[in-house]
């Protein structure tokens, strides 16, 4: 055995002995495979002699590894993140609500995704990435739309088609072909021909209170309830639209552990909540985060489009998509390079404003003194020290004449390009060389 040969011919009592032996046999080793295996076995024996003697199996493995070394496989961590956006209803002329988003703002949001160069992916690409069969860019966006409102087809679909963005419809059975404000099967099929995928949103869209009532009826009744909501909705969509359904969006985001087992039994791969956050490759598939974009909270879209820094890219601040009822400068969501701008609001279209009531607050400065142009009703303030943060938040409050209470405050944010502020507009001039009083002379001989 090699271990016996080692103990008889190589007396290794220290690391220095091993080094000396390796040096002495370096040239013959290159020519003699048997001696190479023997010496490697001796090294292993010396390393382990303080713990336990080598067995015959250990020796054989050392010889095998020496002759056929194992292949090292280098693995890299998937650092891709996906921001899942959740929408509901759209409007062109109604007031925004939490679930209803004006189409002009929706268009600006879609443009912001394009400007940020984010990749908008389909549901199929998302599933392939989660399954490990597709690699995504570091920053991607998945657009989802819940319930099945007709305004998706009339208002949002033309914009999505214009940008050539894929999107996902989470539909619940009882609302498809429901008439009135509901999507029809023909509308859904048309959208599926132009980038739309579909997923389940239950049968009846049960709110948390309904789910809790069914829980109180007992285990058997609750299980039957879940089988209906998860199972019938899936089979209905698959039969009507001839597509395999693998995803589910919890109505209201409410879920219980029992739902996970039922979902797996029915063949669902990914289920989405309403809790904000980015999806990573290792995110739990039964409770995937999603940003629900509300018509009354612009900061949600900003947070949804904010990504952390990676080894290959800097952090993204996110897109600021806002609108204001009156003209302002700098405009909402704009990027400026001047770190000491003039901030103003134009109330010229408001006839009965009380000019003495106008209050402007600027982040980092608090309440600021305003200059007023009475004839034009423009209120402004010149920033008196350099803005230091990457964004600046403004709030303006006012009252109408003879009113006891203030109107709803107007808020907006602009971005400060701090790097641009340090770039000189012209190259610095070099000082002129001094002219000597007397010209040097060159003698010739």
TrEMBL record:
Species classification: Bacteria, Pseudomonadati, Verrucomicrobiota, Verrucomicrobiia, Verrucomicrobiales
InterPro entries reported in the protein's UniProt record: Glyco_hydro/deAcase_b/a-brl, NODB_dom, Polysacch_Deacetylase
Primary residence: secreted
EC number(s) on file: 3.-.-.-
Protein location: Secreted
Domain NodB homology: from-to ranges: 139-368
Name this protein carries in UniProt: Polysaccharide deacetylase family protein
SUPFAM superfamilies, per the entry: Glycoside hydrolase/deacetylase
Residue ranges that the Swiss-Prot or TrEMBL entry lists as coiled coil: none
Domain of life: Bacteria
Keyword set, alphabetical order: Hydrolase, Signal
Organism name: Rubritalea tangerina
Region: Disordered, residue numbers: 426-445
EC class name: hydrolase
GO molecular function, one term: hydrolase activity
Signal peptide span: none
